[in-house]
Amino acid sequence: MRRAIRENSLSIAFLTIFLAALVGESIAGWRLYNQDQLEHGGKTIAYLRYLYSSDFGSGVLENWQSEYLQFLLYILATVWLVQKGSSESKDIGDEGGESDGEQRVGRYAGPNSPAWARVGGLRQAVYSNSLVLMMAAVFFGSWFGQSVTSWTQFNDDQREHREQAVGYTRYLQEPDFWNRTLQNWQSEFLAVGSMAIFAVYLRQRGSPESKPVGAAHEETSTSG
């Protein structure tokens, strides 16, 4: 058990932090929601009911879809684009999908390579892009969930103000939806772009996300 925890400590630590933050968000959101209801003469709801509400679902999924969009675009961009001096970048001139030998697929696969890396055809093509496909699936799934919960929340607000509710496709054209969406996207793009350039000149000793402390600024595709 101890060995399993140690070998998976990074994912376990972030899963634990995620769950703690999600529970904290749900409690804070529930209290804020009920506070707002009381201020406007509405009815409060129980905590478990809040977990099924569009208010909570929209808040959670807004952030999920922007985070997975960040990973999706970064994974794709680093196949073809480079940043001189970044540990997150390939060496200049190594852009592209690389050869079968470099990727250890087909006849170049080893005995411990994943099964779909050893075969050719569609299975290898799918597995070769499986990380991006998973990120895209989570992004589009959470984007759709966020759009539906935000639409429900928008129409609830419309009814409270005695205004007409709108259909789903009409809501996708509303400033409310794109304001919610783009305010998350822009922050993620800024974070990724700044990380790429900060890592050229700044260091964190012992982190694989950083170059060795003594590495030259122009040294590319190395980690500490």
Strand and helix layout:
Layout: H1 2-7, H2 9-39, H3 47-51, H4 54-80, H5 100-103, H6 115-118, H7 121-128, H8 130-160, H9 168-171, H10 175-201
Helix pairs in contact: 4-8, 4-10
Fold and architecture overview:
- By secondary structure, the chain is an all-alpha fold.
- The chain has 2 domains: 1-52; 53-96 and 129-224, no CATH class.
- Helix content is 66%, strand content 0%.
- The protein contains 10 helices and no strands.
- The chain has helices spanning 2-7, 9-39, 47-51, 54-80, 100-103, 115-118, 121-128, 130-160, 168-171, 175-201.
- The longest helix is centred in the first third of the chain and has 31 residues, at 9-39.
- It is elongated and about 65 Å long.
- The two termini are 29 Å apart.
Can you describe this structure in just a few lines?
The chain is mainly alpha-helical and 224 residues long. The protein is built from 10 helices and no strands.
Q: Which labels suit this protein?
A:
10 helices, mainly alpha, 2 domains, 66% helix
